[in-house]
Amino acid sequence: MQIDIGITEKDRKKIAEGLSKLLADTYTLYLKTHNFHWNVTGPMFNTLHLMFEAQYNELALAVDLVAERIRSLGFPAPGTYSEYAKLSSIPEPKGVPKAEKMIEELVAGQEAVVRTARAIFPAAEKARDEATADLLTQRIQLHEKTAWMLRSLLEK
């Protein structure tokens, strides 16, 4: 059945492509955060273990929201590691870094998600896609706040 939501197929496709990159970044950050939750050690273990858990739980919910928006626009959501590896701007960690390096990598990951989300805005605004713009605004706000909180742990 044809989709008739007031956004052209061409615009929906462009937005869905951007959201696919956001989904890949979000899922990759989820995996990295969960990995660090399992493997963190050191004097801040309990604080970081719990903080990372809260962050990966939020990211797990976020991937569903982003994927469902892609589907609402009429396109398949990417859902494999190989697709995410091609689409994501977030590198995988090498080995198991020390706690401070984990925090630095997660700050970089949070900021990468913000940049990816921000890059979709022009297409969403041009198409008057308020639903996607709202999703992007919420994601940007949350990732900027999380990056700030993580950066605060690095201050001497």
Secondary structure: elements and pairs:
Blueprint: H1 9-39, H2 45-72, H3 81-87, H4 99-126, H5 130-154
Helix pairs in contact: 1-2, 1-3, 1-4, 2-5, 4-5
Give a nutshell description of this structure.
With 156 residues, this protein is mainly α.
**Approximate strand percentage:** under 5%
Helix and strand pattern: HHHHH
Which value, in Å, is the CA radius of gyration?
16 Å
Secondary structure category = mainly alpha
Query: Can you give the helix content as a percent range?
Result: over 70%
Low-confidence blocks of residues: none
CATH architectural type: Up-down Bundle
CATH-level-4 superfamily name: Ferritin, core subunit, four-helix bundle
The oligomeric state is single chain
- Average residue pLDDT: 96
> What is the total tally of β strands?
0
Organism: Oryzomicrobium terrae
Protein name: Starvation-inducible DNA-binding protein
Family: Belongs to the Dps family.
Keywords: DNA-binding
